[in-house]
Amino acid sequence: MKFGHFDDDAREYVITTPKTPLPWINYLGNQEFFSLISNTCGGYSFCKDAKLLRITRYRYNNIPYDNNGKYFYIKDGNTIWNPGWQPTKTALDEYECRHGLGYSKFKGVKNGVEANVLTFVPMNDRCEISRIKVKNTTSLTKELKLFSYVEWCLWNADDDERNFQRNLSTGEVEVIGSSIFHKTEYRERRNHFAVYSVNTEVDGFDTSRESFLGPYNGNDTPDVVTEGKCTNSVASGWSPVAVHQLNVTLEPGEEKSFVFVLGYIENDENDKWEAPNVIKKDLAWEMLDRYKTDEQVDKAFAVLCDYWTNLLSKYHVKSSNDKVDRMVNIWNQYQCMVTFNMSRSASYYESGIGRGMGFRDSCQDLLGFVHLIPDRARARIIDIASTQFEDGSAYHQYQPLTKKGNADIGSGFNDDPLWLIAGTSAYIRETGDDSILDEMVPFDNDESKATPLMNHLKRSFDYIVNHKGPHKLPLIGRADWNDCLNLNCFSAHPGESFQTFGPSEGPVAESVFIAGMFVKYGEEYAQLCDLKGDAKEAEYARAQVQEMYDAVLKDGWDGEWFIRAYDAYSHKVGSKECEEGQIFIEPQGFCVLAGIGVKEGLAQKAMESVKEKLDTKYGIMILQPAYTKYHLELGEVSSYPPGYKENAGIFCHNNPWVSIAETVLGDGDRAFEIYKKTCPAYIEDISEIHCTEPYVYSQMVAGKDAKFFGQGKNSWLTGTAAWTFTDISQYILGVYPTLNGLQINPCVPDGFGDFDLDRTYRGVNYHIHVSNPSNVQKGVSSMTVDGKAVEGNVIPFDSSAKDVTVNVVMG
Ligand code: BGC
Ligand code: IFM
């Protein structure tokens, strides 16, 4: 069942009922000011950091699920309704929500009044604009009362949720005309405040939540709206809100437009000014002046739309497959940009106060957006590398505002270092900018320890070389990509002591997955060494990679598939010898995509085992059989009920690894079949089962052992976005950036047909036509560049070219 449809021309998903199975959200903002907004106008805003600079308040895990947002109430006689349906939930005559790229539109119609809300964050500004147009479609005059409503968050969202003994006494506001200022804590830190304003005179306001709602009401029945009259309350402590009242008279057919601006203003805290607690209103007036008229709003909106058009033009495909085109050209790239902005901090499943930027997460995200915003990708790489430790290990997460490693979580996830090589290599392959390798980058944010980025990569590489276990496989540490596979837990086998490795290494749990990563990214590291003219280091790296390759074949192969790991007792994990959890997806996907076992014929076998043991109609499960009991020696993985999350859920993130692995083996049918199973556009029809947004990927879909098989959870902020985009754009459609130029090597399903691709790469626009006269799945028989035949399938890079036409014939 569907709850809406795609509008590809408008680049929107159109939701036609407010009663979606879960809130279906969108993200506004590209730089510093961000908002989450659901299809019923729920959500919240923050500047730069969802934890430390939260502007409006949200209530997690609430009843109803999606509660608190930026609402407009319309009182028309005795009928009170919201254009986005919530919170009054008054039945609407018409409802539509259009989530677009960086904006959302809502249309609500009730009793002949049509309200259209457009909401977006303009480029280069720290504010959100909500323009509401109200139209009278009846033949009688309408006397309406329009109320706005936001609830302020007292900045630090973590504290806001917990520290009531303080919070209930700190709230401060100031009202000047139509502008409601939120200045809580300003008297102390004097560096930021917020404002909510409307571009017309108001007929009243409220800033105290109690006065607006009434002491016993929720936001579905505010007293003020019921009465039709604001109380002009000025909050002092408790919970400040911002409510404007506009009395709107509409003649038959008449429409009126109002522009509301929610702004965040930062000023220099060292400024000396007249008196404490006098906010720098001038800065606010300047901002509000930029969005006073419809024309200004239209213009700012056009700038935003152009920004996206330009961004998405960098990779654009026209194939015979609408769903592929829609995902590649719009939604998958859009989600990649959202993961760039948010990492794993703020979604409807990430509270914004728990996790900031993940080291591994943000490095992987780079794979999906380096082509879109290379400059910002560059800065991101430096930020991430600056949190690395001297021995090559890394803080697992850092806070976006401070960019400092998060000491509470610490380090010890032994896959982290290699992801830095993955992200940096992707950036250089995309941009050709190897100067980044010479950038001086600190360790642990300590400038006195700055060293060229290339050294960071070496530390990453050597960290693995220096941390191997008894099978010469990488030590797993606290966990690898699979956060929940915590193999260095003890006391699981009474009477048997865990194995140690060297005096300081602790237990010996090893990861075959990290070994696969090392083979893949070790070679990419060697290529970067070659690029820098360091043949000796390249040779050393390749020798280490070969050793690892051999170690995987020797002790990482189980007969039909790759073993997952060795636990702290040196027992196999993910082996046919295990009672449960006999096969895991990660080493199958990653070892094969790294090329391990291809020439030995093992890779093919591993892929067959995946198909036979892990595949389902909704995607490939992470492991099988699911753990039915808790295994102390495995850690969190077995704490989940069977079928959920890391215990046999379908982790969408590593499905593309298997799909890519299939392209390495040349099986376009299977690669595409895997791609389709988790692809939002392909599963839109089962939205009632899948439940999460049909335009973006979710981290996890419940596996076959789960009660709700096929149900998605944790949408938006997942490495799935970057990896599926890598899969479809670089391996299936096959435009892969090498250090020397674009390589064209598609691997497509039977009958996929010809396709055209526009790809902007290092400032050159490539127009690539791929034809497939013999309907093969893989292989390029000839290629011409601007009419001239070239050897091989890499387009020689010529920086003086502007537009280049490439004809590729598969065969
Ligand atoms: C969750 C994992 C998640 C990890 C990240 C765990 O508690 O179960 O799914 O990846 O935390 O911090
Ligand atoms: O790899 C992790 C990721 O960093 C966070 N989400 C879950 C994944 C698997 O555990």
TrEMBL record:
Q: Glycosyltransferase: is it a keyword of this entry? A: yes
What's one GO MF term for it?
A: glycosyltransferase activity
GO terms under biological process: carbohydrate metabolic process
CDD domains per record: GH94N_CBP_like (cd11754)
Pfam annotation, one family? Glyco_hydro_94
Q: Give all residue intervals belonging to the Glycosyl hydrolase 94 catalytic domain.
A: 307-734
What keywords sit in the KW lines? Glycosyltransferase, Transferase
SMART domains recorded? CBM_X (SM01068)
**Which superkingdom?**
Bacteria
Q: What positions does the domain Glycosyl hydrolase 94 supersandwich occupy?
A: 11-280
The UniProt entry, under InterPro entries, shows: 6-hairpin_glycosidase_sf, 6hp_glycosidase-like_sf, Gal_mutarotase_sf_dom, GH65_N, GH94_catalytic, GH94_Enzymes, GH94N_CBP, Glyco_hydrolase_94_b-supersand
Q: What is this protein called?
A: Cellobiose phosphorylase
Task: Give the species.
Answer: Butyrivibrio fibrisolvens DSM 3071
What taxonomic classification does the UniProt entry list for its organism? Bacteria, Bacillati, Bacillota, Clostridia, Lachnospirales
